[in-house]
Amino acid sequence: MKKAMLVAAAAVIMVLFVVGGAYAGTINPTVAVNGSVSGLCKAGTAGILTFAITDPSFAGGYTASVTDATVLCTKNTTFTVTAQSLNNPAAPATCGGAGITGALKESVSGYLMNYTFTCGNPSGTGAGFGAGTAQNLNLAGSIAQAAYQNAPVSATYGDTVTLTITY
Amino acid sequence: MKRYMIVLAAMLVVLGGASGALAATLTPTVLATGTVKDTCSTPTNGTITFTIDPSGSGTLTPQSTDPGNTSPTVMCTNGQPHVVACTSGHGSKLTIGNDGLTDPIAYSITGCASPLTGAGFTTATSIPLGLSIAQAAYQNAKVGAHADTITVTITY
User: Fold this and answer.
1) Measured between alpha carbons, how far is B137 from B87 in angstroms, rounded to an integer?
2) Which of A5, A9, A42, B98 has the most other CB atoms within 10 Å of its CB?
């Protein structure tokens, strides 16, 4: 008699289990996520070259003190730099190697002093846009005695060099 | 002979009684029961495609409801609530080649509302979801395509 009751209980449990199993399940649609990181460059800080011709009779020439220009690019994006002087216009050319020749122009007389403008890093690879990722171009400038020895005294010589970042 | 006639009369009475029973009405009923199964079917996949400007600022929030994107959908039994969960294929990171390793961009899943209430099997129910990507996660990302696959699980 006891055995018969156990069989009946087992039968009931099995039926409940089968019914419950028929109703349980999951279904799984997916979402494809595709993010494309753009390769681009942007100007960082503008550079400043300052020539102080303290002695026009000095034969050795002068070099400029420099606040470097920087550029920021997407990580792994390569770039090259060309330069063009406002006062000595020529086609933009690489500022690496021998660099380009610019001209400092006196604002009143228009007197011109040619100088050499160079970039120590005329090309590079981006490191991103976070802190510490700006790429220094290592700008430099020099002026020979022939350019300044007959220059009129003035504090208003100037030029603007446009740097073009190609990436 | 007289005794036989009495027996015949008794039989007639019995017949009369049977005739009375045939005049009554019977109204049997049928108890019909039906159980509507709680289930889901017909899943469709979604897409979230977007462009990251690493020089930008702020948190990016591409959505499956943005133009050009699609939300995943499913059909479930009308009126029944179902638990929904969304899981990244690679630890909530977009990676180059969707390999889970290369140049990971961390993100979190937004939306993915639960529960989802079914609307029957002629109406697909959308499950809108999106991503939230902090500037710190993308500003130094490498140029190129970063991908992940989010699996949406609807339990019924």
Assistant:
1) 19
2) B98
Q: What is the ipTM of this complex?
A: 0.81
Q: Does A28 touch chain B (CB under 8 A)?
A: yes
Nearest CA-CA partner of A162 in A66, A63, A90, A74: A90
Q: How many domains does chain B have?
A: 1
pLDDT tens-place string over residues B84-129: 999 999 999 999 999 999 999 999 999 999 999 999 999 999 999 9
Rounded distance, CA A65 to CA A54, Å? 13
Query: Is the Cβ–Cβ distance between A111 and A95 less than 8 Å?
Result: no
**By residue range, what is the domain housing residue B148?**
40-155
Task: State chain B's mean pLDDT as an integer.
Answer: 89
Q: How far is B115 from chain A (nearest CA, A)?
A: 13
Say which CATH number the domain at A102 has: 2.60.40
Which residue among B47, B142, B153 sits closest to A28, beta carbon to beta carbon?
B153
